[in-house]
Amino acid sequence: MTLPSVQRVSDQRIDKVIPLMTPALLHHEHPLDEDLSAAVLEGRRAVARVLDQEDDRLMVVVGPCSVHDPAAALEYADRLAATAARLADDLLIVMRVYFEKPRSTVGWKGLINDPRLDGSGDVNTGLRTARSLLLQVSRKGLPVGCEFLDPIIPQYIADTVAWGAIGARTVESQVHRQLSSGLSMPIGMKNRPDGAISTAVDAIRAAGVPHVFTGIDVSGTPAILHTRGNSDCHLVLRGGSGKPNYGAEDVAGALGQLRAAGLPERLVIDASHGNSGKDYTRQPVVVADIAEQMAAGQRGIVGVMLESFIEEGRQDLDPTAPLTYGQSITDACIGWDTTVHVLENLAKAVIARRG
Question: Do 192 and 199 contact (CB within 8 A), yes or no?
Fold first, then answer.
């Protein structure tokens, strides 16, 4: 029997196809109630006020490199919520709750893609787990931050997110610039892995205007999306290959590029990645330099990013051995005690900058 031509030429490298649940079904199973909806909207407004320098606090996006254990993430959230409340006069703390992990080559791609940590790719379970965790973190009074990688995923979780990021590997992507132009929260654009800032500046400009592109709506139906543009996009300095960009000269240069492009002079500094030389123990050193700039009066720095978890360091994902509770399986993180110390130092820097 001869197969139809479409079956002979299509999906030749697809092993199997599994139906994907719709965003509407996930929202029904894990609803955002009125109280949480109000909290998310207030979190977004608070972030925007800090970005616009109407609020002189510092935004700090802090949490694990990527979440692999919801139970450990919730314990971390409990600790962070208490610290956030104590430092609320000076810091706006946003919990980093990342579910998608971009890879340079191969590796674990995050909780949504592989929630069982075994390569089975149970995405429907991953979506349920991710949304449930985001709602639980929000109930603790913490705004949440996510990196958006797959352009379909925001329909499932974006209504719970107060701050978003476009990563260094995707900041050049037209797809992600279009996506950012329609997202409802402020979006940080990271500089490229090689350290180039101009690409992220271009991304901010591109995301600030309307776009038309294809996607899905909340029912999962293919749709043409018309966006309004996102005026809350901003630059994130994360360092580059062998060269950090958190120093005073780098900050001044980045603010100058934003000014030349006609964009608001504001930026967030990632204390990890290229700025720490991928050495997690250097994150406090980076923060100390940032704090010194702030204390000296630098107001263009409106935020800081930290990779932090309960236990310091990282571990390999080994199916033959148990994982250490509260320790990252992706990038190495500073531990909890160090995190508290770093946050307190940033709060002191905000107080000094006010003076």
Answer: yes
Residue 21: count of CB within 10 angstroms of its CB: 15
pLDDT at 116 over 90: yes
Nearest alpha-carbon partner for 329 in 63, 61, 69: 69
Q: Please state, in angstroms and rounded to a whole number, the distance separating the CA atoms of residues 108 and 101.
A: 7
- Using CA atoms, how far apart are residues 242 and 207, in angstroms rounded to an integer? 29
Each residue's pLDDT tens digit, 139-161: 999 999 999 999 999 999 999 99
Burial class for 342, CB neighbours closer than 10 Å (0-12, 13-18, 19+): buried
Q: What single-letter amino acid sits at 274?
A: G
- Domain residue limits, the chain: 20-47+55-354
Query: Looking only at Cα atoms, what is the longest distance across the chain?
Result: 82
Question: How does pLDDT run across 40-77, given as a tens digit for each residue?
Answer: 999 999 999 999 999 999 999 999 999 999 999 999 99
Residue labelled with tokens 């990890």: 272
Pick among 3.40.50.300, 3.20.20.70, 3.40.50.720, 2.30.40.10: CATH of 20-47+55-354: 3.20.20.70
Is the overall model pTM greater than 0.90, yes or no? Answer: yes
Do 273 and 260 form a contact (C-beta atoms < 8 A)? no
CA distance 273 to 331: 9
List Cβ neighbours of 243 (8 Å cut-off, separation of 6 or more): 195, 274
Task: Output the CA torsion 21→25→31→32 (10° steps).
Answer: 70
Chain CA centroid to CA 324, Å:
24
How many helices and strands (H and E) does the chain possess?
Answer: 11, 10
User: Of 304, 295, 300, 301, whose CA–CA distance to 351 is shortest?
Assistant: 295
pLDDT in tens, 313-349: 999 998 889 999 999 999 999 999 999 999 999 999 9
Amino acid present at 313: G
